[in-house]
Design brief:
This protein is α/β, with parallel strands linked by helices. The protein is built from 23 helices and 21 strands. Strands 1, 2, 3, 4, 5, 6, 7 and 8 form an 8-stranded mixed beta sheet that branches. Strands 11-13-15-16 form a 4-stranded parallel beta sheet, with no helix packed on it. Helix 4 packs across helix 5. The chain starts with a helix and ends with a helix. This is Pentapeptide repeat-containing protein. Keywords: Membrane, Transmembrane, Transmembrane helix. It comes from Parablautia intestinalis.
Length: 680
């Protein structure tokens, strides 16, 4: 054994120079490989870097757990059920489109939190990492102020694919989306491809954002730009499992099972993958059930603040709310570092600037400004502010919700929960509640007594008040279009300037109600009681007032164009400057009028007797057979108004009937007043 060991060391000694050379070569080669690898990594990092994005932790996590985005040409909201096999993967689709020179503009639409930004990021990295490619690709968030300037700076546009994220977060687009889209189209017309993302509800209506054609045509100057339009589809069950496996497998199997169970009980999570990405925060409370989207956001925000706050959770919450208010009032989704510090000072929020910037729910972008991690979180804090502050809520409702669809969603959802709980707790009566400037969707108040409540400036969505009693209720400036008030009883209720278009008011009792300036266009008002009601300046165009009792009602300046007035009682009504042009007046025999009371019964049957029609437009109306001896027609417009011969005998001395027509009792024909005078 000793002999072999001696021989081994002898061989090493004799060949030491050769071994040294070999090791040197190995070290040299290894060093070269490592150096090249480091250079390659640095190149790839530079090659794939996002010039205009700062990827936060959550976005990186979303990219890591990415499930291929599927798209479709028709809005999923228009489909009763979405087939699991419908749609197609968007990234492979666009990788093929990048070889096709025909289509230039594309728009990808989806609701808040559906993964629009994550999709664009994955598309950017997928194409960027191609070894052989003909075009360069850049991604610019339109939420940044300098977005258009950066687009202008791009060189060799014909060889560039441009990805534009979040058109709905563009400050200029929120003010005037048509003008902003025109600017963008003018600056991007030379790019090889332009792909833009936007919230589905950002466009005001289906005419501006077609739902069927799969195309979105937009006029720019003398030419039309045509966007190919696709919608992001929600996750299928198999895709939810894929996402959760990426997130939890193989080391967190129990969380995978718990999260899948939570999703089955809370389908709102599936609709918005952004919420799904925060599911860990929802799993902590194993007993809690989530009934709506607001409760999910409430839990997520609470958990975020608990993690971030160093001292006082309340201060961070207050700061977030003020930051959201600042962004809304300044029509932006960003806030600068200086504004953050000023905000803390102005509202005496005891947070240092560094805390407000680094420990809050705000993320910094590449330009050094701060924004909420997701716009829906901004809208959550706006709702929290609006719920507590009536003046702020009034501003929001007055401005409308263009660009703030999640804010509208929160308001509708919470208002609905509040009202429904109130109806459960108060059997048959709601008393002394202030609802000013809320949005109340499809609430059923039927047979409920509503007393001393304030609904001023509320927006109702097709509510029901059938057979309800509304006592001392304020509906001023309220939106009640298509509401059902069948047989309702109004007592000392005010509906000044309310929107009551196409409402159902048959058999309703309005006595003592104020309807001044109310819009009742197309409303059903048959057999309704308007005795002594103030309807000055009301719009009753195309309304049906047949058999309605308007005795002593104030209809001065009211618009009754094309109204249906069969057996309507206008006894002692004030109709000065009212417009009854093209209205349909007809009185049957025997007359069946609403009786005001026994003492006034004879007056009620005299129809228009004593009514004031000064300057009223009665063009084309047939008033033959009505007793007009005490009716005031001073300066009334009587073009083609049809009177009978008996009426002519007592009206022609008082009024100018030159343009009127006459119904002849014996021959049953109608001739002009001028012809009638010649024959007589």
């Amino acid at each position: 054994m000793t002999e072999y060991i001696l021989k081994f060391f002898s061989w090493i000694w004799n060949n030491i120079s050769n071994i040294d050379s070999t090791i040197s070569i190995i070290v040299l080669i290894g060093g070269t490989v490592i150096s090249l690898a480091i250079r390659l990594i640095r190149f790839l990092v530079r090659h794939n870097q996002l010039k205009y994005f700062v990827l936060d932790r959550q976005t990186k996590q979303a990219i890591k757990n990415y499930v291929p985005t599927r798209g479709t040409g028709t809005d999923p909201c228009d489909q009763e059920e979405i087939d699991d096999e419908s749609g197609f993967e968007l990234i492979p689709f666009f990788m093929k489109e990048f070889k096709n020179p025909d289509s230039q503009y594309f728009i990808i639409l989806a609701d808040s939190g559906m993964g629009k930004t994550t999709f664009l990021l994955k598309l950017f990295f997928k194409y960027k990492r191609k070894i052989l490619k003909r075009y360069k690709i850049i991604l610019i968030p339109l939420s940044q102020k300098q977005a258009l300037d950066e687009i202008k700076k791009v060189k060799n546009k014909q060889k560039t694919i441009l990805l534009l994220d979040c058109f709905d977060e563009d400050t200029r687009a929120m003010e005037d989306y048509i003008a902003r889209l025109t600017e963008i189209c003018n600056e991007t017309e030379l790019f090889f491809k332009v792909i833009m993302t936007c919230r589905t509800q950002f466009f005001p209506d289906s005419e501006n954002e077609p739902r069927i054609t799969g195309k979105m045509k937009f006029g720019v100057g003398k030419k039309n730009v045509e966007f190919e339009k696709y919608y992001i589809l929600p996750f299928r069950d198999s895709e939810i499992r894929m996402y959760l496996k990426k997130k939890y497998y193989p080391f967190k199997k129990s969380k995978f099972e718990r999260s899948f169970k939570l999703i089955l009980n809370c389908p709102q999570l599936v609709v918005r993958p952004m919420l799904l990405s925060y599911i860990d925060d929802l799993l902590e409370d194993t007993e809690r059930k989530y009934d709506n989207v607001y409760e999910i956001y409430e839990q997520l925000v609470r958990k975020w603040i608990e993690r971030e706050a160093l001292k006082n959770n309340k201060l961070l919450y207050e700061f977030s709310e003020k930051a959201a208010e600042y962004m809304y009032l300044n029509k932006t989704i960003y806030i600068g570092g200086t504004q953050i510090e000023n905000l803390c000072k102005e509202y005496s929020i005891n947070l240092r600037g560094i805390e407000a910037k680094s420990r809050s729910l705000l993320n910094r972008n590449a330009g050094g400004d701060y924004k909420f991690a997701h716009k829906s979180i901004l809208e959550f804090f706006l709702y929290e502010k609006a719920y507590k502050d009536f003046e702020f809520r009034k501003v929001i409702v007055s401005n409308g919700f263009s660009g703030y669809e999640m804010l509208e969603y929160f308001i509708i959802e919470r208002s609905s929960c509040f009202i429904n709980n109130l109806l459960k707790d108060n059997s048959g009566e709601i008393r002394s509640i202030d609802f000013k400037c809320f949005i109340l969707p499809k609430i059923d108040f039927s047979r409920i007594d509503i007393v001393d409540c304030n609904f001023e400036k509320c927006i109702f969505i097709e509510p029901k008040f059938s057979a309800s009693t509304l006592n001392n209720v304020n509906f001023n400036d309220t939106h009640l279009e298509k509401a059902n008030f069948l047989g309702a009883n109004f007592v000392n209720t005010s509906l000044n300037n309310a929107n009551l278009k196409k409402c159902e008011f048959r058999d309703a009792d309005f006595e003592g109600t104020n309807l001044e300036g109310a819009d009742l266009e197309g409303a059903r008002l048959e057999r309704a009681n308007f005795v002594n009601v103030n309807m000055k300046g009301a719009i009753l165009k195309k309304a049906s007032l047949s058999w309605a009792n308007l005795y002593r009602a104030n209809l001065r300046g009211a618009d009754l164009k094309e109204a249906i007035l069969i057996n309507t009682n206008f006894g002692r009504a004030f109709l000065d400057e009212a417009d009854l042009s093209e209205a349909f007046l007809f009185y049957s025999e025997p007359r069946e009028f609403w009786r005001y009371d026994k003492e006034e019964e004879d007056k009620a049957e005299k129809d228009l007797e004593g009514a004031y029609l000064t300057c009223a437009n009665l063009s084309g109306i047939n008033v033959a057979g009505i007793d007009l001896r005490e009716t005031v027609l001073n300066n009334a417009i009587l073009n083609n108004t049809i009177f009978d011969e008996n009426q002519i005998s007592y009206l022609e001395e008082k009024y100018d009937l030159q343009n009127a027509s006459v119904y002849r009792n014996e021959s049953h024909d109608i001739i002009t007043y001028k012809e009638y005078r010649k024959k007589v």
